[in-house]
Amino acid sequence: MKITDIKPFPVWIGHRNQMLVKVETDEGLFGWGESGLSGREKAVQGAVEHFREFLIGRDPTLIGAIWQEVYRSQYFEGGRVLQAALSAIDIALHDIKGKALGVPVHQLLGGKQREVIPTFASTSSAKADTMIEQAQKLMAAGWTAIRFFPDFTDEGRIFEPREHIASTARACVRGREALGDEVVLGIDWHHRLSVAEAASFCQKMPSGTLDFLEEPIRDETPEAYEQLRRLTDVPFAIGEEFASKWQFLPYIERGLHEFNRIDICNVGGLTEAMKVAGWSEAHYVDMMPHNPLGPVCTAATIHFSAAVANFAWLETRVNPDDLYGGGAADDVFLQQPRLEGAVYPVPDTPGLGIEIDEAALTREAFRFWEAPHLRRRDGSVTNW
């Protein structure tokens, strides 16, 4: 079996672009993958087209060898754009191999270790009363792990961290009181804080209020997380921006975090994710995968989550005010993962278990989109 084509599809589906990749073979088998570099899909498309030129004619079942060749056969290896492209191709190759062998992808990763994949869900409101009401709805629907977001309203895209720390801390304390001690409760600051701001936020809450603090500061400097660790006892959940096992290295080896927010579609696909999972297991760090994209990302991450021992929860996207709405773009994704309550069943269909109407996909258009460009009140740029 040989690769005959690799097709990138940067298209707008629902409320965002998805960067899908289809790998075709001379035996009629094909696989789907997805890239996770949201907002820069055109850059990933270009990288996929570069890789396509030397991958046509290769055996798609030699996934590890292809990974090494794509990564190492260039002087400027790695980086988020190239790794996002490699991730999509790697996922698609796993889909092809599973179909060729007649087994689900998790069998290629060592076999499933669980029958269902527990998930965590997020509230959508930034206001305490509504946020707590939404969390109570999620609990009633079966979720035992819930994530809040900061008390932040995009007023003209102005964000001043110090204006939101105290109110967010109060909301978290109220949320813990309303939800009880049994629920796992966390918050995602989306790396918007400094070390001092993150420490101040944590110190305004009683110990035990939060079970995880996600992305409080940016990740470029591990030493900053070491400093923050000395200032708070809240477990950290970080890593969704990491694009290789090497970026995870200092965090795992220095014991800087407790949950890996690994992104299958950015880190280098399933091949790289399994290496990070094994390494994390040796240091008692649990996998808590990032899953903000489309059904292909969700499917690949379900197979990964089924196959690793050190798993906590998989992120899922639900509307807390409409928990029983339909799936993502049902006219495009004819077969896709479906929640059963607060868990995803582990599929046994060959490959990823995804079916896409390519004709419907090609009718979709790409739309340029920018993440919010936030500024402080003095006019300076701050993190989104």
Structure explained in plain terms:
With 384 residues, this protein is an alpha/beta fold. The chain folds into 2 domains: 3-103, 2-Layer Sandwich (Enolase-like, domain 1); 107-351, TIM Barrel (Alpha-Beta Barrel), CATH 3.20.20. Helix content is 38%, strand content 16%. It has 13 helices and 14 strands. The strands form 3 sheets. Strands 4, 5, 6, 7, 8, 9, 10, 11 and 13 form a 9-stranded mixed β-sheet that branches. 46% of the residues are buried. The mean pLDDT is 95.
CATH topology of the largest domain: TIM Barrel
CATH arch. level architecture of the largest domain = Alpha-Beta Barrel
Mean pLDDT: 95
Number of helices: 13
Please describe the biggest sheet, giving its number of strands, its sense, and whether it closes into a barrel. 9 strands, mixed
Gyration radius, rounded: 21 Å
Low-confidence stretches: none
Order of helices and strands: EEEHHHHEHEHEHEHEHEHHEHEEEEH
Strand content: 15-25%
Straight-line N-to-C gap: 45 Å
Quick recap:
The chain contains 13 helices and 14 strands. It has 2 domains: 3-103, Enolase-like, domain 1 (2-Layer Sandwich), CATH 3.30.390; 107-351, Enolase-like C-terminal domain (TIM Barrel, Alpha-Beta Barrel), CATH 3.20.20. Helix 2 (63-72) packs antiparallel against helix 3 (80-101), helix 6 packs parallel to helix 7 and helix 7 (195-203) packs parallel to helix 8.
